[in-house]
Amino acid sequence: MAVRPHPTSQGQGGAGPLGTMRLDERLNLVLPLEGGRGFVHCQPLDRDVFRHNWRLFAETWSMMENDNLSITAAGAVAAMAMEERAQALGCEEQHAAIMAEIGRTARLIAPGPEGYAPLPLATAEKRGLLPADEADEVRNALVFFTVSSAVQPRARQMRTFQLLCLCRAAESTSLGVTAFAASLPTSTEDVRSGVTAAA
Asked: Which of 59, 103, 154, 162 lies 20 to 30 Å (CA to CA) from residue 50?
């Protein structure tokens, strides 16, 4: 079932080109799913998560930088890079906790009879709502976003985020997951007809 492009990607709200956003805004990542089936919304992890796992975050980013990976390549392998560094550092439990937190806080937003109800990504995966290859692609992109948000200076983070959005057809938004879902068409009938219900 196709989902129309989110209206804010046209410059009418919180998502879109980073040039329209201030450096002090908390940016979240929105990944459109293939075939217009919905979105995955991800916010940066809490700073406490970074403070408790800073070495794994830093080593993952350093590994990707030292290997001279492009944004496209790094965004496609970041989850595997983090897993490899976790094994090398002997912190597999920390890695598992980070991945579980990403799976808990990231949300699948897809149309249903009651409109858009955000669902934790981990739950969506358990229910088979994402094909395995698409789930892997999403996870790698989310880990790249998470690590980038945690370790980079704000100004450089904005540039990296902009390149990620260009390379992976993603969006940036200052909207939280509930507000983002509420800004989408409110029913599957709206999606089919191309009519956005009144707020």
From this structure: 162
